[in-house]
Known about the structure:
Helices cover 62% and strands 2% of the residues. By secondary structure, it is mainly α. It is globular and about 50 Å long. Pfam families: Rhomboid (PF01694).
Amino acid sequence: MGGLLAFMWVLEIFDQSTGGSLDQYGIHARELDGLPEIFTAPLLHGGFEHLLGNTMPFAVLGFIVALGGFARWLGASLIIVIVSGLSAWLLTPANTIVLGASGLIMGWLTYIIARGAFDRRPLPIVVGLAVLLLYGGMLWGVFPSQAGISWQAHLGGAIGGVIAASRIHRRST
Length: 173
């Protein structure tokens, strides 16, 4: 997680020093040629304040997900990035560029919470409840609230996190 965060900070330093040249690699809503940016948008931010606001939850929630192993972290992250990105691409007004890791962060949040329900073991349930208590207020981000904040990516991330938990942790009965 530290390496990914360092990479995002290096990207933002470069982006700021070049007048926002990397922002073009964000999700271009409703443009077919903007779909590949679903995978680059979570690494890019709209300034240092935006990145700073995402840094701590990215580190904490990403680390908790990574404790389950690299394969689970990667699988969950890919599902979340795709669902969040597609939601942002489809639901955001045209001529908008969506940047930031908050859709992924929201997905990790719901993944951690939902994983206990699908896994049915005590530790994931307790961890999920603790994360809900500490970060549950973030869930309000799935509703439209403030201009410039992509509730669409947040909503997609939240849905992606539940899908990832159900796919990765569903027990056969």
